[in-house]
Amino acid sequence: MDKEMHEPKDNKFIPMTSITSGSGREIINDVYYYTDQIANIAFLGYPDKGGWVLVDAGLPGAADEIRSAAADRFGEDSKPSAIILTHGHFDHVGGLVELVDEWNVPVYAHELEMPYLTGEKRYPEPDPGVEGGVLAKISGIYPNEPINLGDAVKPLPGDHTIPGLDDWEWIHTPGHTPGHVSFYRENDSLLLSGDAFITVRQDSFYNVLMQKDEVNGPPRYLTTDWEAAKKSVEKLEALNPDIVVPGHGTAMRGEELTEGLRHLVQTFDQTAKPDYGRYIDDDQHKH
């Protein structure tokens, strides 16, 4: 792979965790997710059939944990056929450069995320002034410089297929980032939502620590287009997923997911979209 790959300039350990950090959970035979501090990393593929795909790469310093989880599930020295990204925020690409350098596998992301993954452009700064809890207030410390994956990263195919995953499709779900995508398998209504919607209130220190289940909109302190975010949630709710593995929070299924997602769609402007913040239209919030 391209020797120009490098970590973000502001790459650093972030002191955030949850009670599920360091643990994994099998959802069905070929879907397993592992929680690195506060972010979920998915492993798609059967343990006894060899081929598998990694979804996202955790927080800075996550490479060792990802390697260990992969070895436990697929065997020593196993590596994926590809890595696919929901988006490129720091808590989803933390172990990526190290893993790509070692595994020499391609990375796929939406074409609109490419500038943030090739060192060309950094994300808008987190908003510590947004309405929200402690984790929103300290978001100014979160990295937002771009990672550079060089020619290792490629755009997802335009026909919505996913390399290495025949039964899955990618769905463009922008708002949290311009090129955010979610992954869906129709035959069992299984959704990997990334940060389009999550199952924990991500700005609340207590809720994140205890992983309190609750269908929520995208993390407030890093979401920059709330109208697009709302449309993305509506798009995913229309799929009527039976199981979701989110980017943050615990997996959820059945009626709890259906009712929670319906409520989120119906109340998005009141419960998900903050009342104030850098990325909220001031004209809509005059006092």
Question: Can you put this structure into words, describing what you see?
Answer:
With 287 residues, the chain is of the alpha/beta class. The protein has a domain at 24-195: Ribonuclease Z/Hydroxyacylglutathione hydrolase-like (Metallo-beta-lactamase, Chain A, 4-Layer Sandwich), CATH 3.60.15.10. Helix content is 23%, strand content 19%. It is globular and about 50 Å long. The N and C termini lie far apart (54 Å).
Q: How can the largest sheet be summarized?
A: 7 strands, mixed
Q: What structural class results from the helix and strand content?
A: alpha/beta
Determine the strand fraction and express it as a percent band. 15-25%
Number of helices: 7
The parts where pLDDT drops under 50 for at least 5 residues are none
Name of the CATH homologous superfamily of the domain at 24-195: Ribonuclease Z/Hydroxyacylglutathione hydrolase-like
CATH architecture of the domain at 24-195: 4-Layer Sandwich
Number of strands: 13
Q: Order of strands across the biggest sheet?
A: 1-2-3-4-5-6-7
Q: What is the mean predicted local confidence, pLDDT?
A: 92
Shape: globular
CATH uppermost class of the domain at 24-195: Alpha Beta
Q: Report the CATH topology name of the domain at 24-195.
A: Metallo-beta-lactamase, Chain A
CA-to-CA gap between the ends?
54 Å
Helical content stands at 10-25%
Instruction: Report the C-alpha radius of gyration, rounded.
Output: 18 Å
Question: What is the H/E string?
Answer: EEEEHEHEHHEEEEEHHEEH
